[in-house]
Amino acid sequence: HYYITNNLRTMVHVKNYPCSCCEDCVFIPYVSYEAGKGSLRAAKRRFICTDNILRISQEVDEQDVRHQDKGSPRRITIMQRMSTMSGKQRLNPEWVRQKVIEEIINYEEGYVKNLKDVIEGPLKEARLRKDLFNDNQIERLFNNIEELFEFQVQFLESLKNRLKTIVHKSEIGDTFTEYQDKFVDIYSRYCNNHSSALAEYTILNQHMIYTIFFESCRLLKDMESIPLDGYLLKPVQRICQYQLQLKELLKYTTSTHPDHAKVKDAECIMSKVASTVNERKRRTENINKLAQWQSTIEDWRGEDILVKSSIMIHSGSLYKISAGNKQLRRFFLFDKQLVYCRKVLGSGKLQYKGRINLDQCQTVNLDDNSEPGVVNGWKMENRVKNKWIVLFCKKSSDKTAWLDALKEERRQVELDEENNFVIPEAQKQAAYVQVTRSNSTRSKKLNSFSHKYKSTSDLRNSLLVDPIPRDSKSKSNKKLKGFSNKMFLKKQKKLLHLHD
User: Does the structure show a pLDDT above 80 at 1?
Assistant: First the structure.
């Protein structure tokens, strides 16, 4: 086992040593990693005893122990509490369970205070400074932190109401079960937008006036000396900590305790909540990519891809046989639908040709040559419209990959229905707005360039230090005529930071 101290260069091998300053403390010697040299070197022994780091000489003179002042007090963890316990207390699960419950409450109180500081500090002041922040910036930066704070206050109050005079007899497991849906809903929305908040903070913090503003807000509320992005990260960290704390609580809850089954259920639920929040964050990040993908398809018809789908599962080229016609198409498998396109000759772009509603279809495997000229194929039967389409590929490995992907698609749809996963309409609209803005920015750059330079000679002159008049017949002007227009167009795009 290894223990990382406040000095991040330190690796500590855990081993019990006798203690001369108190009873039953755990002393931990270490060897430090010397940065830059890439090797471990022996160093003076240091020993950790609760909050103090003790140094003794290489000979381990236990009588010559000097305590190092650590400055401000820090939170004492369960392991540090156990280091000061007597042997009987260590074997008493009731005492340990009491300390775990107290730790859960203490962490929750500290977390709620952090959220309150952000709301009454940076958020409140930002709303007053209309010259620095607009409503969109505030929404991106702080997200639904106020709703999150109100929920955590309510959750903390419920935890405290379940505490009993004899703490280890308290039953707090059902509290987590009761608030399961709210955990998923509120934390999913916060974590989905956390990357946007971090990006917004990074952009603002590049300007000195915003750096001073955020630091002033921190000092005004006497907040911990960590930047604002550290506070905005706390909810993302907190949703993962519940499972670990409940796991520790279950460890010291006997099977005869009335809270044992509730804590066990709560641990499973919070583990599932953390997984669901993480999956929703990943899926939300995917919808921006799907919206961007749709914008590259020519002649798109029908409803947008995000109306039914939120993830691309597989893609590749397949042969399609429908009404006796054999066609090579590019297929894209999403949840609930299969879209196929045709390559536009010359441009390499894709043109929309159609889609298959997988909720109405059934996949039927076909033996080789069971259909004329069909090898490595399968049939998609539409039960509603009573139609069918045959798909096949060149290699058997490709067929296996497609059939596995179609099974995965059905499994993903069932899982989404089980977890009630639905992407809010606001996030879908935001994805399309972002794509529209990026495309309009590109077109504006091209349009502004075309208006500025009416001809190739204007472009050539703009690239020269000393522009040459059009009617000039000097040797240098004749040399310019040898340059191809294509080269200057490439130069043009390079200057505009665009790509072919």
Answer: no
Biggest CA–CA distance in the chain, Å, is 102
- Please list, residue by residue across 17-48, b when 16 or more beta carbons sit within 10 angstroms of its beta carbon and e when fewer do: bebeeeeebbbbbbbbbeeeeeeeeeeebbbb
What is the pLDDT averaged over residues 55-68? Answer: 33
Q: According to the model, what pLDDT value does residue 55 have?
A: 31
- Helices 228-251 and 93-118, axial angle in degrees (round to 10): 160
Residue 253's nearest CA partner among 387, 408, 96 is 96
- φ, ψ dihedrals at 31, nearest 5°: -120, 140
Q: Is 347 helix (H, G, I), strand (E, B) or coil?
A: coil
**Torsion sign (Cα): 53, 57, 61, 66:** negative
- pLDDT tens column, 265-299: 999 999 989 888 888 788 877 888 898 899 999 99
Pair 271, 296: CB distance under 8 Å:
no
The residue type found at 246 is L
Sign of CA dihedral 266, 118, 195, 294: positive
| DSSP notation for 270-328 | HHHHHHHHHHHHHHHHHHHHHHHHHHTEET--SS-GGGT---EEEEEEEEEEETTEEEE
